[in-house]
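Priority: low. Protein: RloB family protein. Input follows.
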Amino acid sequence: MSLLNRQPRPIPTRDKDPNSLRDDRLFIIACDDTYAPQQYFGFFRLTRVHIHVVPTLDNTSSAEAVLKRLLGYEHEQGDERWMLLDTDHVTQGAHLRGFLRALSDAEDQGIKVALSRPCFELWLLLHHVQEDQVRSLRNAGEVEAALRDALGEYNKTRLKEEQYPRASVAEAVVRAERLDDSVKGGDIPNANTSRVYQLWRSIVSKALPSQLPPELHPLLERNS
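Result:
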């Protein structure tokens, strides 16, 4: 992507916002979803840590397109760039080669990847149920149905902040770690899992302990 077309680093400078400092930690997260991840991460406002989600807005949700959008943003040393990718429908047949190439290119660029199989909604579901309850779900439709059962409702275009309290994040991280430890397949897991917990671990590690919400302190203790 031409430098002329690059998006600015999505964090204000001190001149524009006296409450934002140049050494604030920035996470730029590109995803293959239009709605859920951007809303979800918008619920969590952490001091000195900025989370900027780049959603899919033009129906180009392939891993290659997600990577291209992410590479279009300016970043500085110390910023972290992540891709959130689902495996549903994209790791089979003709899609697999492009998916693997995007993972390799991301690694070359220092970009981290948090895969969810089959979909991001599995991560949301782990806020509410134990990991053993998600193992047998066969596809994204079944995951969304299970999430709807757990919450009484689910609309990915209108997530509700009160359904994802901070304390449930810590629980989801622990559950996802246990689940992922039991899954084989390397970069492309061969069973249900969500590696969004790795992103949360990194976010928490970059926050100042004194300014971290108490509900997330268990994650910081596990990082120490």
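Strands lie at 25-31, 49-54, 80-86, 112-117, 193-194. The first helix runs from residue 36 to 42.
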